[in-house]
Hints:
alpha/beta, Uracil-DNA Glycosylase, subunit E, 6-stranded mixed sheet, 6 strands, binds uracil
Amino acid sequence: MKNKAVLEQRSLFQSSEEPExxxxxxxxxxxxxxxxxxxxxxxxxxxxxxxxxxxxxxxxASCEIYPREPxxxxxxxxxxxxxxxxxxxxxxxxxxxxxxxxxxxxxEGNPHARVMFVGEGPGATEDETGRPFVGRAGQLLDLMxxxxxxxxKDVFIANIVKCRPPDNRLPLPPEVEACLPHLMAQxxxxxxxxxxxxxxxxxxxxxxxxxxxTRDRGKWFHKNGIDYLVTYHPxxxxxxxxxxxxxxWEDFQSLRKRLDELLRSKDVE
Length: 269
Ligand code: URA
């Protein structure tokens, strides 16, 4: 029985190098350091993106374009390979963000991930490195992942927009619209079973524009064969650790539980 659980856990993460143990075995309820605060003296100066927990996107911002699958009109329909998609995104000039950014932050992780995380858009550190969530918000995300038994390399991490908005502003509706086919193509290729929505922009864009993170965090939504979990953006948590860190951690425990249930019910391979 135990071996079966171990096998299920290993098949969940195709490239896992984790020691053999079941999904819930040996996990500490609260990981070392998670409630100590994120330090990083240098990176403390970093301006955090994602403070938009309660803002409502302007009318027509996003959800109207959600059902629009990348289709023939924008030439994404033939792409089933993340590497090829990345090349296409690097060439993208569909909005003005590319001009102000150093480069494209495509997203990273396991191309067969069962769980995908969607943030807002790259910040300064992400723009410099070309990798999503590597600044202070990313450090917190990594701790949250560990605390729920995930490793960053087992999941896929992406953003609504792939280029850094200037001055860490919220991406504008036309920028979201222009970039959304990239994310939709990533979702189509990766086929995650669960998407974790980090903050308001991804929640309102991918599920429902009326969602409010402060009210709706911790809730699950089901759409087109995918379970969506709304939670805080890690940058918002860093701004208000006293009130938001534990709820976010609880959301990650709920994520772990949901995935374990899906694995047990054989609803994911
Ligand atoms: N904030 C985001 O929304 N995404 C990142 O990649 C980094 C910070």
